[in-house]
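User: Here's a protein and a ligand (iron/sulfur cluster). What would the complex look like?
Assistant: Let me lay out the input and then the predicted complex.
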Amino acid sequence: MGSEASVKHAHSRVEIDTATAPQAALDAARRAAAIDIRFPAFKDGRGYSLAALIRESGFAGELRATGDILPDQKDYLTRSGFDVIAPDEGSPRWARASFTHAYQPGLAKGANDRLPAYRARALAARKAQVQALNQQYGDAPPETIIAVALEVFAGRIAMLSSFGIEAALGLALLAQVDRAVPVLFLDTQRHFPQTLSYRDQLVAHLRLEDVRPLTPDPAEARAQDHDGRLYERDSEACCDLRKVRPLNAALDGFDAVITGRKRAHGSGREALRPFEFDGERVKINPVAGLDPARIASLYRDMKLPAHPLGAQGYTSVGCWPCTAPSAGTHPRDGRWPGSDRSECGIFDPVRTARAEAASRRTVRLIG
Ligand code: SF4
């Protein structure tokens, strides 16, 4: 019943005017997929504040400015979070048909190259928050980092787990604080059967309440991996299909994600801090500072079950086509053996830069 109602709302467009109370505007943002803010007069600045407030609440749908709008307001409208500007038909000041032509780009140079002000403010605040958390908890033990993260990002945080060789520790620490926190599992459909049975064993052992398997989009998988051997032809495209895109979609609803990354695993992780901001959301790395010996002793102390492949020489476990027992001394030696890859792309800084660029909105003029 509830989901039917929310689907209906999710496809709705709501119109509010500049006199709408802030709380009513936020209620509209929760209900609607698109919002029109009507400017009764071009000099009415309340529409900018409402737009910024709606964007800062996390609203990601279309925000359209309608009514009596002047061309040189475009820069302000953009930075307030509008992505469509639709002046009224026959507006006495600005006929829709003339809007695009009459707009003087030189007056608001670079409007589309800058982050909207609401977004820039949110990014700056998030960066400062991460810096403060690292200053206060940079050397704290993993259980403290998890407890702090769950408090600071309550309701907006998930843990990402591969249910791999060292995954049980982070999951157990999470379960000690809150078993209901969502745990995201990238079900690439290429996992070892041992990983899947270990996942089920850990879920039961730790009584995790909300483990969410993330699978690739079936249509995309059919189109891009028709024979199921994309990992042979282009392993980066395969990881993009089976890991990066499903994770991006799942993370949309979260401000923070807890990872199991460690400095001891190298591959660019040597300087990992417990709290990180990637330009989009906060990553929390509670076990960043633990080395394999410390992890092994915590497994013993906490009586955690071991991944079955650990006894067969695997020190890091991913998908079966791309994982081998470790041949060297490095924990991730067995990942993508024979290639120079060591990361699947979900923590790729290039991806982060792409995500940040994607947040730069291009305003559409309707006229
Ligand atoms: S690790 Fe291998 S099989 Fe798994 S998604 Fe990446 S390329 Fe595909």
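Summary: Residues 120-336 form a domain with the Rossmann fold fold (CATH 3.40.50.620).
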